[in-house]
TrEMBL record, chains A, B:
<keyword id="KW-0694">RNA-binding</keyword>
<keyword id="KW-0067">ATP-binding</keyword>
<dbReference type="GO" id="GO:0016879">
    <property type="term" value="F:ligase activity, forming carbon-nitrogen bonds"/>
</dbReference>
<dbReference type="GO" id="GO:0006400">
    <property type="term" value="P:tRNA modification"/>
</dbReference>
<feature type="binding site">
    <location>
        <begin position="7"/>
        <end position="20"/>
    </location>
    <ligand>
        <name>ATP</name>
    </ligand>
</feature>
<comment type="similarity">
    <text>Belongs to the TmcAL family.</text>
</comment>
<comment type="function">
    <text>Catalyzes the formation of N(4)-acetylcytidine (ac(4)C) at the wobble position of elongator tRNA(Met), using acetate and ATP as substrates. First activates an acetate ion to form acetyladenylate (Ac-AMP) and then transfers the acetyl group to tRNA to form ac(4)C34.</text>
</comment>
<keyword id="KW-0547">Nucleotide-binding</keyword>
<dbReference type="GO" id="GO:0016740">
    <property type="term" value="F:transferase activity"/>
</dbReference>
<protein>
    <recommendedName>
        <fullName>tRNA(Met) cytidine acetate ligase</fullName>
        <ecNumber>6.3.4.-</ecNumber>
    </recommendedName>
</protein>
<dbReference type="InterPro" id="IPR008513">
    <property type="entry name" value="tRNA(Met)_cyd_acetate_ligase"/>
</dbReference>
<keyword id="KW-0820">tRNA-binding</keyword>
<feature type="binding site">
    <location>
        <position position="187"/>
    </location>
    <ligand>
        <name>ATP</name>
    </ligand>
</feature>
<feature type="binding site">
    <location>
        <position position="162"/>
    </location>
    <ligand>
        <name>ATP</name>
    </ligand>
</feature>
<keyword id="KW-0963">Cytoplasm</keyword>
<dbReference type="GO" id="GO:0005524">
    <property type="term" value="F:ATP binding"/>
</dbReference>
<dbReference type="Pfam" id="PF05636">
    <property type="entry name" value="HIGH_NTase1"/>
</dbReference>
């Protein structure tokens, strides 16, 4: 059996993802699709709309055979660390390829870009440094520095979000010397950050979340933009746990934490750098909502994503010293769910998988997974009080989901 | 003009307090009554039912001429430090006497007890130590140690809560060598901790709060047990700010803080001692409400009050190092309110008052008052979101209340 890997968040799972999975199977010729999926908090520094279990169920119904959780220390991270964790996870799970979506769709372009940047390494780094000094955000400095090298037309456009991530996957695979074939699929229609629905049935996750959080419509507005299964799982989650998870639900906590913490203590938090802590403290005292706070906080120097990640780390009190472990590869594979096909794959190859496969959270311990459990406890605090305990218990007692089909 | 001092919390102001003030004026022969009043959080480690401003208004309407705020570092404290702060405040404000309510009502008994314990100091301390070692709470050990000295009958009963506090006031005045005459008034009817209303109109503050927080009655049940003015101010506060302040309102914050903090960090918090931090962490993860948490937390070794104070310090992140300043006397007098009579007193004696009198919070800085402002910000977080900013602004912009009458 041949396995291909995908790196996902499914926040929520939509038609674009179905297309990605169909293409991944076709391109890789694999029998099994394995997902490295972020848990409770995501790369853009926000709580996942619904639990890892609901999203695992969407994944299994949508075409994934095995879902492993990308630990918090890798998931809520800059693109390079995120990629490093995800690629090491899929490599450890025995994937022979990784298929990612990108605006480019041309894998040779990624490799050429990788080589090109390696050749111009010193000049590239100097240019990044210079653009950062000019007050640009890190992603902006990267893209300006890249442009300043006057790349050939056939190199990929490193201003596009999915190209950037894909480039980091390719880089991670090269650096890890993983025997992984990288493949990319050109994304259809919706841009990553699109906030509006288009006429295409492939809506971006961003536009779906935006519709879910708007006051005027209560979920039904998204019905035609997501697969029936996603719609069913979203509404069922909202019914069972009283609410989706939204940054606004955590705003009071953030505000309290910033009211009671000193700048000195805040400096220890991961991704709090360069005087950002004073800005956070001054603005939190005045802001009355998360969106008001973020709008006040935003500067040219820091991306929205970067600021949201810092807030996630404040919420979970994740310190710089806590994420040192993310400099390494993943150290276990936490199984969240499998299809019959996925189970067959595991049974056949488990002896060749060198990392422990975690089926029961309670019977395993590791600094990485402890951070995940802390994140799960805090994630549950975004629900109305009476649903929190139920949500939390799932982290410790839920067996991996199993789905018969396929 | 002659001033007498009282040490109060008025949570809320009730008929027992009116009696106390009438008696205080009679016994002291004073023209002016000055209150040292706790701010947002109280000696028993709980948020005040309503703001310091609403309670100041009750105080002024009820017979107090000048209200000064006892800073947080002294207010949320063990009886001895609390007493030390309050006595130093009233002494600095120029009081020639302090009148406190007690179960005993006999001031000579307090002085005799003070001398008696000084004479038996070594034996007393050894006995306290021994009773603490047996797992008793500190107040219990004090009272057992006292009994073990076989005191004369005319000494005061140091198992009664108001006698204990009064004894600390007398002790503080002696130690500070304050030229203050101490006087005590026998409390009428209601015991400090009474939870039930009795037939007497003098209900305890505890029973009034209990009635206010019960689900079945919405305030009107207390109408006949509190002065009209208290009733008016309580209902007006609830209308203007959406809620009274109750520990349950802060439970989610406490839970989040305990979920994200390590035992090591918790140890730095004031009044967290002797492995208490591990107990806090373990029980918080399971508890679903403040009362559930407190009931699980309670042991013979720690009084409810002591545990609540530790939780208040967790909520405000008040560290052991932050309250070092409470080893000294108060360093300023923050004026919360005055009557015409109180203003006349201030105008006449302000040159003789050596401490700065703070009228505008915003134009004064001091580590003690910074702690009060932090407490005020966090106190406001116990209100529904839309009322918080309004509540908080009062801390910084509210002028001392002024009342014409008298």
């Amino acid at each position: 059996m041949k396995a291909t890997g995908v790196i996902v968040e499914y926040n929520p799972f939509h038609y674009g993802h179905i297309y990605h999975l169909e293409q991944a199977k076709k391109v890789s010729g694999a029998d099994v699709v394995i997902a490295a999926m972020s848990g409770n908090f995501l790369q853009r520094g926000e709580p996942a709309l619904v639990s890892k279990w609901a999203r695992t169920e969407m994944a299994l119904n949508g075409g994934i055979d095995l879902v492993f959780e990308l630990p918090y220390a890798f998931a809520v991270q800059k693109a390079d660390t995120f990629a490093n964790g995800a690629v090491s996870l899929l490599s450890a799970a025995g994937c022979s390829s990784i298929c990612f979506g990108s605006e480019s769709g041309d894998i040779e372009g990624f490799y050429d870009t990788y080589r090109f940047l390696n050749q111009h390494d010193e000049k590239y780094k100097a240019a990044i440094h210079a653009f950062l000094q000019q007050g640009n955000s890190y992603p902006k400095a990267l893209s300006l520095a890249f442009a300043s090298l006057e790349p050939d037309k056939h190199l990929i456009d490193l201003t596009k979000p999915n190209n950037i991530l894909g480039f980091q996957y390719v880089t991670a695979a090269q650096k890890q010397q993983a025997s992984l074939k990288m493949a990319t699929i050109k994304r259809k229609n919706a841009d990553y950050h699109d906030e509006q629905f288009t006429s295409s049935p492939i809506a971006s996750a961003t536009s779906i979340r935006k519709a879910l959080f708007s006051r005027t419509n209560e979920g039904s507005a998204i019905q035609s933009y997501v697969p029936d299964d996603t719609y069913r799982l979203l509404t069922s989650y909202q019914r069972s746990f009283g609410s989706f998870h939204n940054w606004e639900n955590y705003w009071s906590y953030i505000k309290l934490l910033l009211l009671q913490t000193t700048a000195e203590e805040l400096k220890d938090i991961y991704e709090m750098e360069e005087g950002l802590e004073n800005r956070f403290l001054a603005l939190a005292a005045k802001a009355e909502s998360f969106s008001e706070f973020m709008n006040a906080l935003k500067t040219k120097r820091y991306t929205w994503t970067r600021l949201q990640r810092a807030l996630t780390h404040i919420l979970t009190r994740t310190k710089k010293t806590d994420v040192k472990m993310a400099e390494e590869k993943v150290s276990y594979l936490r199984l969240l769910g499998m299809t019959r096909n996925g189970r067959a794959y595991l049974n056949r190859y488990k002896k060749e998988i060198s990392l422990p496969i975690i089926v029961k959270r309670a019977s395993f311990d590791d600094p990485l997974i402890r951070l995940d459990s802390k994140a799960a406890r805090i994630y549950a605090m975004g629900l109305p009080q009476k649903y929190r305990q139920k949500a939390l218990e799932l982290e410790f007692s839920q067996q991996p989901l199993y789905i018969e089909k396929k």
